[in-house]
Amino acid sequence: AIDCGSGGTRVWQWLPPGDQVRLPWPAGGRGPPLSAVIRCEAARQAFASVLVQLEKNSNGIFVGATAGLRHALELGDISQADVAAFRRLLPARCELQIISALDEARYELKALRVKATDDSFSMLSMGGKSMQLGTEGALFSLPFAMHLGLAELRQAKSPWPLAVAAVGDLYQKRCEEELARQQPPVIEGKVACITDVLDVAKALHFLGEELSVRELMDVLDACISGYKLKEEPSSFIDKDLILLARSLLLRAVVPQFCSQDCTFFFRDDWSVNWTLGYFLEATAAFTQTSP
Q: Would you call 128 exposed, middle or buried from its count of C-beta atoms within 10 A (0-12, 13-18, 19+)?
């Protein structure tokens, strides 16, 4: 399964009976974002040639494009004609699907249920351009995430502390808009934090811990305040700005969508993504149809 996210492309291989392993992109590390290459004929061909290589050593390939491609289509940065041109380059046993926000959430939750055997957990998942939250029957997605704040921080022109506060206000406003538009149920009880939320926990040294809402807010506030005090943001590397954007995003999301009684679990052994959920669902469907 090929995870085409907003920040890059990753290759995952199914490991029976219920896990996966990440493989390197043949050119090394991870591949480029599909949304960035699909508009250019030469780049499309180069990307597809990698898939041809991967197909030779597999029983088939599922290419799943998530929020990066969804947003590029919505904004008109790429067209359906670009997508169709890319599909024509794919090898025979390779399927491309633009995964909806709710399908992405469903796959992630299915993967989480394998890792965390307690089905009472809700989920909090963060990507580059969307977030997935909730539990069975009450899943929802936010059509923004880290990249929204990161873009604003990179081009900040006002005094740095004001620029950071403005990004926090932007996330707050977008959360309020989605809360009014979607009217999702409040998330309560135990919340498993997965995907990029675990990167925040690792960077701020609370990976492996369980935090209340207040404890989580205190850690995020300390991180944000520390960055605000730095008067010379030009010294920041992208890693700093990404952590700051993610922290500002969580600081806005958690109080608006989660009840005050929530406990957040940051467990490295629950590190999952949508591809594992896809594998589990596809394998179950194959088993049911096998003679």
A: buried
**Beta-carbon count within 10 A of 268 CB:** 10
**C-alpha–C-alpha distance, residues 88 and 231, integer Å:** 51
- What residue type is assigned to position 280 of the chain? L
Burial of 228 (0-12, 13-18, 19+ CB in 10 A): middle
Q: Is 217 helix (H, G, I), strand (E, B) or coil?
A: helix
Confirm if 134 and 184 have CB atoms less than 8 A apart. yes
Pairwise CA distance, residues 43 & 141, whole Å? 30
The span from the CA of 238 to the CA of 244, in Å, is 10
Instruction: State how far the Cα of 161 lies from the Cα of 114, in Å rounded to an integer.
Output: 42
Residues 21-74 pLDDT 10s: 999 998 777 899 999 999 999 999 999 999 999 999 898 999 999 999 999 999
Tokens of 142: 């936010």
- For 140-179, write each residue's pLDDT tens digit: 999 999 999 999 999 988 889 999 999 999 999 999 999 9
- Residues 276, 19 contacting (CB under 8 angstroms): yes
Which of 235, 239, 164, 255 has the alpha carbon at shortest distance from 196? 239
Tell me the C-alpha distance between 68 and 128, whole Å.
8
Rounded Cα–Cα distance for residues 98 and 123 (Å): 22
Reduced to 3 states (helix: H, G, I; strand: E, B; else coil), residue 148 is helix
Nearest Cα to 19, choosing from 214, 270, 201, 198? 270
* Length of the chain in terms of residues written: 291
Q: Tell me the residue ranges of DSSP E strands in 135-284.
A: 140-142, 190-195, 210-212, 263-265
Q: How many CB atoms lie within 10 A of CB 95?
A: 11
Secondary structure E strands in 232-290: 263-265
